[in-house]
Amino acid sequence: LDDGRIGEVEAVVSDLHAADLADLVEQIGPEHRGALIDILRPQFDGEIFAYLSQSLREMVLDQLEPREIAAAVAELESDDAIDLIEDLDADQQREILENLPPETRALVEEGLTFPEYSAGRLMSRDLVSVPQFWTVGKTLDYLRTETDNLPEDFYDIFIVDPMHKVVGAIPLSRIMRQKRSVKVGDILTEDIRTITATTDQEEVAFLFRQYGLVSAPVVDGNGRLLGVITVDDVVDVIDEEAEDDLLKLSGVPDTDIYRAVLDTTRSRFTWLFINLLTAILASSVIALFEATIEQIVALAVLMPIVASMGGNAGTQTLTVTVRALAMRELSNTNAVRVVAKEALVGTINGTLFAVIIGLVAGFWFQDHLLGIVIASAMIINLFIAGLCGTLIPLGLARLKIDPAVASAVFLTTVTDVVGFFAFLGLAALILM
Amino acid sequence: LDDGRIGEVEAVVSDLHAADLADLVEQIGPEHRGALIDILRPQFDGEIFAYLSQSLREMVLDQLEPREIAAAVAELESDDAIDLIEDLDADQQREILENLPPETRALVEEGLTFPEYSAGRLMSRDLVSVPQFWTVGKTLDYLRTETDNLPEDFYDIFIVDPMHKVVGAIPLSRIMRQKRSVKVGDILTEDIRTITATTDQEEVAFLFRQYGLVSAPVVDGNGRLLGVITVDDVVDVIDEEAEDDLLKLSGVPDTDIYRAVLDTTRSRFTWLFINLLTAILASSVIALFEATIEQIVALAVLMPIVASMGGNAGTQTLTVTVRALAMRELSNTNAVRVVAKEALVGTINGTLFAVIIGLVAGFWFQDHLLGIVIASAMIINLFIAGLCGTLIPLGLARLKIDPAVASAVFLTTVTDVVGFFAFLGLAALILM
What integer pLDDT is reported at residue B43 of this predicted model? Predict the structure, then answer.
């Protein structure tokens, strides 16, 4: 691109898969991105959007004309089209929708009526359904002749009753083995997992994972068939949800490494600001003991150790608890058992580290009473860390607040405050 | 179970899906688990193992006889059987293998020859392959008559040459629409992603995600077809890998909430011990400035704020970097750009928080010079946090060390040491 050898670049990109083109757009320097998009422009492959990170997707959309975007969108499956359009602002949405072919437009508009992150947004409208009184032969003939109106790839044929309610499904690999005279109603699997369109995508991912599903029908409130979700859509959801927990625990709103510097700075500011407030709170606990520290400076040297160990032990417990909640392994049935176990684990590790740090501090400052003080504070703080590392996320989950997002702040506030207060308080009592 | 109403329990469990039975085994109190297993025992469904957490799997395996385990394993697909057997110790493996039917045994033993976490362990041996000179009609007849030797569910038919090398694939939904006289060699898709049996499972997950695959053929070093990996196996891998990063960043070896107290305590001890060493290192930096703190106790009150802000800002950067490395968004091409950006983000946020904390500290202790000291230390530490939050994981990745596992320790050591040193050092210079 630097040398302006556009023709060669064109030759290279024409052979690439959409996912690889998206990678190319991401990896290339910002100074060349515009030129690359211009090369791809004449026949922009809509699938590229599906593989681009959020901020670059916006950049590319800004550079293309609404007409060009509409042409790219028209080629997409309805779920991918919705995924792309839902993030645009109202004006852009209108412009693109107006440029879409009427049927695609109707499907996309209907899809947008479902809540964000719901099965309705995730599902594809392209599916195969046949009435239960059809025979295998009639179904196979239908598949063979109606190729234009049917999706290119599918795995299950859904069987519906006259009200278009789902009564069962037949995997492709099974229907092919049946005699042509058999009624589909007689060979269908009734035991299928049906998903309501308003179901949250996290719940959808759970069902696919729990029952090893490959595809599942999506129905409206009356059980009528609307669409189908396939496992490849769920892979993206699983990635998103896993990333979500990781990010929230670390206080980062997204992992988009292509976002601009000022956007990134702003997005991280809030979490750091909350952290500043909790750090000042912890400092004010220390300030209560200024007189004590003035007399025994060793306290200032040792106090971060107690707080840091509490924070780390608490984070271990917190991570396990948040993950268990996300994977639905933690419920009312076993919550008490898990809390008790974590508190016990904290106390045992607290005792072990109390011995170690007690000896280290005692020898370092030649004061065995100081060793006893820090040892006691360590046990108290690691017990509290185990207790709060489970109770805080469980409590937030019960209040319907996402435990991943707020737990870490609460927890480190508790372990800092308790760590400083226990250590300095005991020191004031015993050493003064 | 408490009332000994075994009959009723038997009636309930006989209707449940293996995944739900596994949940039941997990949720039930440890005191009843043995009795429940005894109820399930006569026809133990091997699939339950696939859904159980590691520690409970071991418990259940201990309770069952090798003969019973072998009967359950014989019902499984070869990849699930391998997944179960690979975790056992050599004695148990031998005992179970001896009780398996000969063909299953051969498949499992062959599977175990592939490296752990490789495509060879992940793949299923049950697949459909036909020679390229067959017609569609012959293929469909073969599928219809050979039902006993073919897998129950499959999505693609693989086409092989006389050397059993993969030349392409045809999705089921496409072959059904063709005329019977067409040769499969003429309608196959050549552009498929073939995976070598020794490929790491992380790489497999990347390929499925990158190209939206549903199934992919696995071949040996000579390109001969060995097995097939389907997307539902990859979902488990994605879950595992995502969990892995989350856990390593928090210093927890696993999220198994059913593990016993002492095992859990031991597994967390190492990380906490490393953390203790780094905390002592940070304390020894503070000890350098004992004389300064003795004269200005306010320093002891304020110093944790600088360290804590550096730790949090660094963790934000670290999380984004580790995730970007895992998702292959960060490469040599853009590494320098990302490092520079994060250092800049750190400096900008550092400046903003320098103003805030400078004012707070200045008013709190009525000393504007103290405000200037803490403000300067904040900028330095947040710049270092941004720089090291990217450089440490990138450096570890280059040394082929998993960046998720060791980065956090290095990073917080740096931000603690720099935070205390910059703040106390500047205080000693300016205020004394």
Answer: 72
Tell me which residue has tokens 């320093």.
B299
CB-CB: which of A19, A172, A327 is closest to B173?
A172
Nearest-angstrom CA–CA distance, A156 and A86: 28
Report how far Cα A43 is from the mean position of its chain's Cα atoms: 32
Among B1, B232, B421, which would you mutate to test the A interface (most chain A Cβ atoms within 10 Å of its Cβ)? Answer: B232
- Angle separating helix axes B54-63 and B30-40, nearest 10 degrees: 60
Q: Answer whether B252 sits within 8 Å of A140, measured CB to CB.
A: no
pLDDT band for A160, please (50, 70, 90 cuts): very high
All structural domains of chain A: 6-117 (1.25.60.10), 129-230 (3.10.580.10), 261-431 (1.10.357.20)
Query: Residues 6 or more apart from B245 whose CB is under 8 A from it?
Result: A246, B322, B323, B326, B404
Closest CB from A212, A287, A300 relative to B286: A300
| Most B CBs within 10 Å, among A27, A126, A320, to test the B interface | A320
Rounded Cα distance, A416 and A162, in Å: 64
Does residue A49 surpass a pLDDT of 90? no
Query: How many Å apart are CA B432 and CA B79, to the nearest integer?
Result: 70
- Helix (H) / strand (E) element for A57: namely helix A54-63
Rounded-to-integer distance, Cα B397 and Cα B404, Å = 9
Give the ranges where A251-367 is alpha helix by DSSP (H). 261-287, 290-295, 298-326, 332-364
3-state secondary structure of B14: coil
Name the phi and psi angles at A228, rounded to 5.
-140, 140
As a three-state string, the secondary structure of B186-209 is HHCECCCCCEECCCEHHHHHHHHH
Given an 8 Å threshold on Cβ–Cβ distance, is B283 in contact with A301?
yes
**For the complex shown, is ipTM > 0.85?**
no
Phi/psi for B128 (5° steps) reads -115, 120
How near does any CA of chain B get to the CA of A91, in Å?
Answer: 31
- DSSP lists the bridge partners of residue B219 as B196, B225
Question: Across-strand partners of B159?
Answer: B130, B168
Residue that the structure tokens 């009184």 belong to? A133
A215 neighbourhood in chain B, CB within 8 Å:
none
Radius of gyration from C-alpha coordinates of chain A: 29
pLDDT over 90 percentage in chain B = 35
Contacts of A290 in chain B (CB under 8 A): 297-298, 300-301
Q: Each residue of A198-209: pLDDT tens digit? A: 999 888 988 888
Distance, in Å, from the CA atom of A178 to the CA atom of A225, rounded to the nearest integer, reads 25
